[in-house]
Specification:
Elements: H1 2-18, E1 23-30, E2 33-41, H2 42-51, E3 53-55, E4 58-60, E5 62-64
Antiparallel strand pairs: 1-2, 1-5, 3-4
């Protein structure tokens, strides 16, 4: 009976970790000043990290999470 409980608990943990969205607080540098963008998640986070963040006619490099 303990084995069934352990397997069920492991399955619930696996599903909950797999469904988590990756989110991070992000910012960009503006002439030495850190400008907060806020929290980005999922596809928006991946796109900002890969392609930058569009500000009117300029695209800036985004930094997410602490380094």
């Amino acid at each position: 009976m303990k084995k069934v409980g352990f397997i069920a608990a492991a399955a619930v943990l696996t599903i909950s970790f797999a469904s988590c969205k990756k989110c991070h607080d992000c910012h960009y540098d503006d002439n030495g000043t850190e400008v907060e963008i806020g929290e980005l998640c999922g596809d928006e986070l991946e796109s900002a990290e890969a392609n930058g963040w569009a500000l009117q006619d300029t695209v800036v490099t985004v930094h997410c999470e602490e380094h």
